[in-house]
Amino acid sequence: MKYSYYPGCTLKTKAQELEKYALDSAKVLGFELEEQKEWQCCGAVYPMATDEIATKLSAVRSLASARDKGEKLVTLCAACHHVIKRVNEDMRSKEDIKSKVNNYLDLPKEYEGETQVLHYLEVLRDEIGFDELAKKVTNPLTNRKIGAYYGCLLLRPSSTMNFDDPENPSIIEDFITAIGGIPVIYPYRTECCGGYLCLEQKDLVNKMTDNIIQSAVKNGAEEIVTACPLCKYNLEISNDGAKDKLSITYFTELLAEALGVK
């Protein structure tokens, strides 16, 4: 299987582990992620202004490129996935946005939301299958108690993201089980980490992330995994001052470890 792959900016700088171990693991699992040649920043934040099109153009270019190759578009960063999938829905369902974007881009063929956007975790669940993943594990993470941290962007708005149950998701827990670990359910796993508030309201973000970490610790987690670089950054800052420190890693690091390529 071959997919068009959109990496995004952060995976080339602060979150290189998220990408490296995803690519290494894909080879073991038998699928290929071909990086798009001329991808641009997704904008990082989905624009809430209903008449805004400029910050959606780079996402549409990537979506159209995947469409023209007849491939699904795979992402890793939760923020990139959020932006690209919501823009795709705009192009599928909002005639005004679709018309303005296509008029501006002047593509050889107008883009109308045809591309299927998948997060890497959805590839594991829906394309590979967690049962098949389990068969590839050579180094099971036996007896490791791992808490999944979802955050906001993968799950909400649920009607558009269609990723998992926004209040009681299970995809990362099922992933942890497939690689031999013990998933830990804790109340704050879908709460916001504070996001970009870390730039101006650090105390508030520290309080929010401390609640997440303490919730995980209280319920027996010994480590946390996430798919979001910003969430990882915020959790790490709080974790530095936490009484009960947890290992905080990307899910792809655990995947690579279980497959024997880390």
Would you mind describing this structure in some detail?
The protein is an alpha/beta fold and about 260 residues long. It has two domains: about 1-120, Up-down Bundle (Glutathione S-transferase Yfyf (Class Pi), Chain A, domain 2); about 130-260, Rossmann fold (3-Layer(aba) Sandwich), CATH 3.40.50. It is about 45% helix and about 10% strand. It contains eleven helices and eight strands. The chain has helices spanning about 15-30, 55-70, 80-95, 95-105, 120-130, 130-135, 160, 170-180, 200-220, 230-240, 250-260, and strands at about 1-5, 30-35, 75, 115-120, 145-150, 180-185, 225, 245-250. The chain has a four-stranded parallel β-sheet, sandwiched between helices. The protein has a four-stranded parallel β-sheet with strand order 6-5-7-8, sandwiched between helices. Strand 1 (about 1-5), helix 1 (about 15-30) and strand 2 form a beta-alpha-beta unit. The longest helix is centred in the last third of the chain and has 17 residues, at about 200-220. The radius of gyration is 18 Å and the shape is globular. The two termini are about 25 Å apart.
Number of helices: 11
Overall 3D form: globular
Q: Report the CATH architecture of the largest domain.
A: 3-Layer(aba) Sandwich
Kindly state the number of beta strands. 8
Arithmetic mean pLDDT: 96
In what range is the share of β-strand residues? 5-15%
Using only CA atoms, what is the Rg? 18 Å
Counting helices, strands and paired strands, the structural category is alpha/beta
Domain count: 2
Strand order in the largest sheet: 2-1-3-4
Unreliably modeled segments? none
SSE order, one letter for each helix or strand: EHEHEHHEHHEHHEHEHEH
Largest sheet: 4 strands, parallel
Looking at the structure, the CATH topology of the largest domain is Rossmann fold
Helix amount: 40-55%
- What is the CATH level 1 assignment of the largest domain? Alpha Beta
Give the CA-CA distance, first to last residue: 23 Å
